[in-house]
Specification:
Number of strands of chain B: 6
Shape of chain B: flat
Number of helices of chain B: 3
Distance between the termini of chain B: 8 Å
Radius of gyration of chain A: 23 Å
Largest sheet of chain B: 4 strands, antiparallel
Order of helices and strands of chain B: EHHEEEEHE
Strand order of the largest sheet of chain B: 2-5-1-6
Oligomer: heterodimer
Number of domains of chain B: 1
CATH architecture of chain B: 2-Layer Sandwich
CATH superfamily of chain B: Dimeric alpha+beta barrel
CATH topology of chain B: Alpha-Beta Plaits
Strand content of chain A: under 5%
């Protein structure tokens, strides 16, 4: 059930499957932009790309990845299009005329991303469309990653495409005066993909590496909009997570808390690249929530050990974040840092103040449990851990909490 | 593309409007008038509805006879209070128009079937 106890053969299989997915991801979006340009129709182009992706995932494992994967995908998509639109001469003629490779302008790629993340679409629809059209995921892969039935994802995508064509959602890059609000939508979508990948509710070995997809999306966006500090901030945040990903699980696949992680296994080069990116973004003096979150993670990533962490700085960064975006969840994280600047009793008081808004969130109860234990109230701590256990769906977190309920410690 | 903008009033908005002095209310109406004038080239038709208490609803699927009731078809705190039919390039242009709407706090944008 966990990545660590998978046999080598399975590991090879997963690795080659991941490679295939990466090749598909590299070209799916480009193919989509080219097809929208030719057919003038987002929904049709999206269907053709999905057909080509499905064909690739079916045939490449047996036949090997073709020498020119992009041309292969294009040919499949074009032929499907010509077949499917027998009665619509204008499409067929246009499709028959295009020759691969079609140059993909950066504006084209931005158009695709901004259309998928249009604010007139619901957030789940934005996420599903972006993953399918820009990253080339199949409906089944999206459904598995988010633990929802495949029919639900399919319905979301069908409805979203219908809305795009019937409600007149344009296929274009937003005007400069609306770019900031529209960019926030795109960043929120990438951030949610990151979150789902960071602590997946689905079983790790079976699910797609969504952190990798989020990182890929962010780096594409950063290439296309290199002067947007929040794009750089989100990319740095993802890079900082990935640089330390190996240390988050032990040999048995159990979650290791930051405090007990083996910092020697962190990728120091990747961390320093990410912090440089963040520093360059900060020079623009346009702070935002992603830059601040990345800066907080950078404080942890640059500390040589838990005790060496600059908690004062972290509390300060949380204050700035709360100023920009008040949220009970951010207050909870700030309280965790306050434990190390003002002590567990002060932190507990701040956490308790959040009871109304975070009562259904497992980390609220897990954090209370830790603070209660730190001030020697073990009975209340155990009750809080029990509540946390009831509320989490993540197997690795369940294991940690189970140990704490049984032993009163996480064994770290 | 053609869209209908449905202007929706809330109880809160209605109360605030009532609480205003005549001068403030005139100013609020003048802002709406200016918005209409600014977008006159895109507005094909527009109208303000009488308050919801004047509505009559006819239900035709309730039995053999139509059922006529007093009031709007949904009893709620939010009621449609006006409409405008606009012709613009796409949803983004409709959104741009609506963003600067100075009247009631809710607007639904619905594309018209062509």
């Amino acid at each position: 059930m966990t990545p660590a106890i998978r046999g080598d053969a399975d590991l090879d299989h997963v690795t080659s499957q991941r490679e295939l997915e990466h090749v598909v991801r590299e070209y799916a979006g480009r193919l989509a932009t080219a097809l929208v340009r030719v057919t003038g129709d987002f929904a049709t182009a999206e269907d053709l790309v999905q057909d080509a992706v499905l064909a690739a995932l079916q045939r490449w494992p047996a036949e090997g990845v073709p020498e020119r994967p992009d041309a292969w995908l294009f040919t499949v998509a074009r032929n499907r299009g010509i077949d499917a639109h027998r009665r619509r001469d204008n499409y067929r003629t246009k499709l028959a005329q295009i020759r691969w490779p079609v140059a993909s302008e950066s504006d084209d790629r931005l158009r695709l991303i901004f259309t998928c993340c249009h604010p007139a679409l619901s957030r789940p629809a934005q996420i599903a469309l972006t993953l399918r059209v820009v990253c080339g995921l199949t409906t089944a892969q999206i459904a598995r990653a988010f633990l929802v039935p495949e029919t639900t994802v399919a319905r979301r995508i069908t409805r979203a495409k219908r809305k795009i064509s019937e409600a007149g959602i344009p296929y274009r890059v937003p005007d400069p005066d609306e770019l900031n609000t529209r960019l926030r939508e795109v960043l929120a979508v990438i951030y949610l993909v990151l979150n789902e990948g960071y602590l997946p509710t689905a079983d790790l070995s079976e699910s797609r590496d969504l952190v990798d997809d989020a990182g890929w999306l962010a780096s594409q966006l950063h290439d296309l909009m290199p002067t947007e500090p929040e794009v750089a901030g989100l990319l740095a945040l993802i890079q900082l997570h990935r640089a330390r990903a190996d240390a988050r699980f032990d040999r048995d696949g159990d979650l290791v808390r930051l405090e007990h992680q083996d910092r020697a296994s962190w990728d120091r080069d990747a961390i320093s690249r990410a912090t440089q990116l963040l520093r360059r973004a900060a020079e623009q003096h346009r702070p935002g929530p992603y830059q601040l979150q990345a800066a907080i993670v950078a404080c942890h990533a640059e500390a040589t050990d838990w005790a060496d962490t600059d908690w004062e700085q972290i509390v300060l960064l949380y204050d700035m974040l709360l100023h920009l975006e008040p949220s009970p969840l951010t207050r909870l994280h700030r309280a965790i840092a306050v434990r190390y600047t003002a002590g567990p009793a002060a932190a507990l008081a701040e956490v308790n103040a959040l009871s109304g808004s975070l009562d259904h969130y497992h980390l609220y109860h897990a954090t209370r449990a830790e603070l209660l234990r730190a001030i020697d109230r073990p009975e209340e701590a155990r009750d809080a851990d029990r509540l946390a256990l009831e509320l989490t769906a993540n197997p690795a977190e369940q294991a940690v909490l189970q140990r704490r309920v049984e032993w009163g410690t996480d064994g770290g | 593309m053609k869209y209908v903008l449905l202007f929706v009033e809330t109880e809160q908005f209605e109360k605030e409007l009532e609480a205003m002095g005549q001068a403030d209310r005139d100013r609020a109406y003048a802002l709406v008038g200016k918005w209409m004038a600014d977008h006159a080239d895109k507005i094909r038709a527009a109208g303000k509805l009488q308050p919801a208490v004047t509505a009559t609803t006819v239900r035709l699927d309730a039995g053999s006879e139509p059922v006529i009731t007093d009031g709007p078809f949904v009893e709620g705190k939010e009621v449609v209070s006006g409409y405008a039919e606009v012709e613009v390039a796409d949803l983004d242009e409709a959104l741009r128009m609506v963003r600067s709407w100075p009247g009631c706090p809710l607007v639904e944008i619905r594309p018209l079937e062509s």
